Amino acid sequence: MKLRCCPLFQVAEITAHFDIRLLDAPFDPNAASDDLAASTPDAGAIATFIGKVRAGDTGVDAVQALELTHYEPLTLPGMKDLAVKADERFSLMGLVMLHRVGRLDPGDPIVCVSAASRHRRDAIEAVDFCMDHLKSAAWFWKRELRGGNWNWIEPREADHADLARWNPSA
User: Fold this and answer.
1) What pTM did the predictor assign?
2) CB atoms < 10 A from the CB of 166, how many?
3) Kind of pairing, strands 149-153 and 14-23?
């Protein structure tokens, strides 16, 4: 299993726990969130989002698999830059951002974003900020296998609107 990691770095004169990785093998998002909690014992809040491949649909429209590809020279650096922006915008004590690439099956976790802060609002909004950017402005491409056919998935109009709310002057 290849792991690319940025475990600890200095941001805005504070040392925060950052774990930013691209993964080509399954991961346990609960363990990632638990590790963040253990590394930030003074945090008053930890918010976590786990995105999974949709499961439960039946018939021809059921998702059989999801494949995520990315542009390697930009993806991890872009995720690290996103982490810095989140830390600058919100008062974070730590941030975990794990994202799968490759072929995934229904029920598999795709992404885990977990933020620790002294107060709930910063943690919740940091997770939302990161997910909106990952969903619409990252170097990932998705396609789904349904009914034996692969189809590319584009961000929805709502995804772009979610991203735009973070920069209302643009």
Assistant:
1) 0.86
2) 15
3) unpaired
If one counts the domains in the chain, the total is: 1
If you write DSSP's letter for every residue of 111-143 in order, what string do you get?
EEEEEEESSHHHHHHHHHHHHHHHHHSSSEEEE
| Contacting residues for 105 by C-beta, under 8 A, at least 6 apart | 53, 65, 66
Neighbours of 165 (CB within 10 A): 10
- The torsion defined by the Cα of 48, 109, 154 and 124, in degrees rounded to 10, comes to 0
Provide the token pair at 115: 């933020």
Rounded CA-CA distance 25/75 in Å is: 17
Average confidence (pLDDT) over 116-135:
96
Strand ranges (E), 34-156: 45-52, 63-70, 92-100, 102-104, 109-117, 140-146, 149-153
| CATH number of the domain that residue 112 is part of | 3.90.1170.40
> Residue 21 has what pLDDT?
95
> Above 90 in pLDDT, residue 6?
no
Instruction: Determine the Cα–Cα distance for residues 67 and 59; give it in Å rounded to an integer.
Output: 20
Structural domain boundaries, residue 130: 15-148
Cα torsion angle, 92, 24, 140, 47, sign:
negative
